[in-house]
Amino acid sequence: MSTEPVTTASAVIIPAHVPVSGGIPPVRVLHLGGDRFDIDVRGHIIRTDQPASDGGEDTGPTPTELFIASLAGCVAFYARRYLDRHALPTEGLAVDANFRMGSRPARVATIEVRLTIPAGVPAERREALLAVASHCTVHNSLITTPEITVAFADNA
Q1: CA 72 to CA 84: how far, in whole Å?
Q2: Which end of the chain lies in a sparser environment, N or C, as judged by fewer CB atoms within 10 Å?
Q3: CA-CA distances (angstroms) from residue 68 to 60, 106, 136, 147?
Q4: CB neighbour list of residue 123: distance below 8 Å, 6 or more residues apart
């Protein structure tokens, strides 16, 4: 892997393609042609594309769909951990997420997440389960927005 530095808008130098915080490897996105990209997350490859109706080849979800999937997956993970911690059933746990796009700027305007809980989860546990699931890391990151820097990698 390269150790070329990245200069951010705030003039902080960050080595490219190496872990920067807590040893977490960076996510790497490579262009494959057209609207196709492969995203490498710790050796797991995720393909993104655009629907054919938008000029892509529909070989994978869009980045926006992955964004929604990340939220739904995080809610499901937190819910499952809660159920397991309280010795409650997990079979049948599911999360569905719908979203609506907004414009000016282009963005996800609304997200609706629905948690399907397994049979056998007592009514008195549902409120706590919902509270835990709705405070997953991805949801927390949307509520308390992270600082985001987009900059050019230094190719010098």
Answers
A1: 18
A2: C
A3: 14, 15, 13, 20
A4: none
Instruction: Please state, in angstroms and rounded to a whole number, the distance separating the CA atoms of residues 15 and 100.
Output: 37
Give the other-Cβ count within 10 Å of 41's Cβ: 12
Contact between 67 and 108 (Cβ < 8 Å): yes
Instruction: Give pTM, 2 decimals.
Output: 0.83
For tokens 């008195």, the residue is 124
Residue 22 structure tokens: 């807590």
pLDDT along the chain (156 residues), means of 10: 39 48 87 98 97 98 98 98 98 98 97 97 97 98 96 80
